[in-house]
Every structure is written in structure tokens, then in C-alpha cells.
Design a protein that fits this description.
This protein has eight helices and no strands. With 157 residues, it is an all-alpha fold. It has two domains: 75 residues, lambda repressor-like DNA-binding domains (434 Repressor (Amino-terminal Domain), Orthogonal Bundle); 58 residues. Helix 2 packs across helix 3 and helix 6 packs antiparallel against helix 7.
């Protein structure tokens, strides 16, 4: 088991500012040693507990990481998400993604006008772009904490 996998649940908990005891209470786990077993990579938590962790720790990216960790056979089907740490990282990622998509659009347009077949490289490039876009979405979800207004709140304002 990779070292990173042994600490990621703990990293999320610590980033949320919680001790093991506080997290265990909020997650309705009777023994903090049970939580420690997840954090040290001895056992894999079930999905319902991971869903609680995501809510309690405020870390949406934990969901995708957990799927990769708990179900490695699904990994090839998931986009590779780069962890972005700053607004500058996000901007650069957005700019690179736009450039790649624009170039691939031009290639597809050219291929279709010449009645040629789309190559696997074009599909690979779009998958790469989707991964970059998912990195941006993960950053926004994790860091910007954009407030949303419910339909009921809109009616009253």
C-alpha cells in the first residue's frame, strides 16, 4: 500500500482542524482506534463512512481519491485530476485546457472536412483536457467555497 494512502484520510481530518477523537464523534465512530486503522491503511472505510468524512472534513476531492484507493480496477476509467493549490495554479490550468481544447477542435474540424478518421490521439488529448477541467472543478469546490442561493431564497429577495 503506498505511503500516501496511509495518511490521506488523516490529512483531510487534520486539515479540517479535528483530532481523531473529535472526528470519531462527528462520524459516529465509537472508538477512535477504528478511525486510526483507516488513517494508517490497515482497513478501507466503506463508502457511507467516506461520504460522512467528505461532509465532516469539507474535502470533496476525497471521494475520487477513495474510489482510486479502494477500487484500483476502476482507476483507468477515472480522469486523472491534478491537485491545484493556488488561484494561479487554477488559472494556468484553465488557460492550458482552453488551448488544448481549441487545438483539438481545429484538428477534428480539419479531419472531418477531409472525410478522414479521428485518431486515438485526439481522444487521448480530450481525456487529458477533461482531467484538467476536473482539476479546476476540484479546486473551486475545495477552496473558493462559492455561496449558492437556493430557489426559495431568490424568491424572498
Amino acid at each position: 500500500m503506498p505511503e500516501k494512502s496511509k495518511t490521506y484520510y488523516a490529512t483531510c481530518r487534520i486539515n479540517a482542524g479535528l483530532t481523531q477523537e473529535e472526528a470519531a464523534n462527528r462520524l459516529h465512530i465509537s472508538e477512535k482506534s477504528y478511525l486510526s486503522r483507516f488513517e494508517n491503511g490497515h482497513i478501507v472505510p466503506d463508502q457511507s463512512l467516506v461520504a460522512k468524512m467528505i461532509q465532516v472534513y469539507g474535502t470533496p476531492s476525497l471521494a475520487q481519491w477513495h474510489v482510486r484507493y479502494a477500487n484500483p480496477d476502476l482507476t483507468p476509467w477515472l480522469p486523472e485530476v491534478t491537485i491545484l493549490h493556488t488561484d494561479g495554479d487554477m488559472f494556468l490550468q484553465a488557460e492550458q485546457t482552453a488551448r488544448i481544447v481549441c487545438n483539438q477542435y481545429k484538428k477534428i474540424k480539419k479531419v472531418l472536412h477531409k472525410n478522414k478518421q479521428i485518431t486515438p490521439n485526439i481522444g487521448k488529448s480530450f481525456r487529458n483536457s477533461a482531467s484538467r477541467a476536473m482539476s479546476i472543478v476540484a479546486y473551486i469546490d475545495d477552496n473558493l467555497k462559492i455561496e449558492t442561493v437556493s430557489p426559495d431564497e431568490r424568491k424572498t429577495s
